Amino acid sequence: MKKILFSTLAITTLAFTSCSNDDDGVIVDPGPDSINIEVPVTYSFERDGESTVNFPGQTQRILMGEELISSMRDFDIATEQSLLDMYANENSPFGNEDLNSSSRQLRNTVASSEDYFTANTAEAATIRQFFGDLLSAQINEVFPAENTAAAPGVAGQIADGGSTRYVNAGGLEYNQAVTKGFIGALMVDQIVNNYISTTLLDAGTNREDNDNDVPRNDSGTDTQMEHFWDEAYGYAYGTSADLTNPNPTIGDDDSFLNKYIGRVEGDSDFAGIADNIFDAFVLGRAAIVAKDYDVRDEQTTILRELLSQVIGVRAVYYLQQGKNGIEADDFGAAFHDLSEGFGFIYSLQFTRNPATNAPYFSGAEVQEFVDQLTAGNGFWDLTPAALDEMSETIASRFTFTVEQAGTIN
What we know:
The chain is mainly α. The chain has helices at 11-14, 56-71, 80-88, 97-100, 114-117, 121-142, 174-195, 198-201, 206-211, 224-237, 257-265, 273-289, 293-327, 331-347, 363-374, 384-395, 402-406, and strands at 2-5, 36-39, 46-47, 50-51, 156-160, 163-167. The radius of gyration is 22 Å and the shape is globular.
């Protein structure tokens, strides 16, 4: 563990560099009001010789999501009921018995953040039903057309290089819409609008209890505030090969947020974003241990901006790749990319702009995008110009350009 002294003027700068793999700590002139924060190189925290890090629920929900999206392509076994059962964890639907015996589920966690949905229960119900409807439509629209050639207004299969894609009448792959939609509605919403929110972190006596190292009710090691931060961390890294040091395999450990942090990291225009996200998680957790809530909240700001950027970048990327496919008359590739883009666009409403404390795009604005993508014959009717316009609109809310997001350099 390396010891870093923070002054209030140095917090933002050091948030990006404090957890590098350099064994030599960074020492900053602390000034009169500084707090000594010990920042580990990996996400490892102990008290009295025992680990205080715990996030099994996040790992379980990621695994539930993996089984669900895999089952959406199982034409021989999956039924509408089996998919809906996986969504709600009812009737022991999973191959993993640990998931069947869990009280956790995907459906009631979608659109359930404290900041965005506690006072918007009707909106939350609509979003949860949206995903349920996609699961039903996969069975009722796409499965019966498994051996039908897709065409405008006709669900079926379409070639994408050596792969076969299965689309609805508008060219949308429902499984891609669910997968990428979960990244926003489940993972990012729970991180940026729930577990790292001061609304939850400082609820009740949490700050007083953290000041006095009072353990939460069901644990003898971690405080409630520490646990909330760990749960946020789990939605990004809960199935990583090394839970304490996930970046060596970033992008390879799940099909959701972890995968696309890795994809954005792989673009030279955004190189370093994976380290910056991980460093903010580590520094924020270390600040909680040190009872420095200003530094903690600085990391919340960083995480909100960067995780939201992951969604924005990939939304634009897939719109641009879809445009390229349309221009090349490669509709299978185009529709696959646009289906992924559809999910990331849907996820925009769960982002958090630190400057406004609101999503980068509201639910109503997202619905306008969805209406554009699904009007008439859906993807079959989209033009390159329309996709460029949509891309520019999205990029303009962030700090990147369409060119930066639309290609991998």
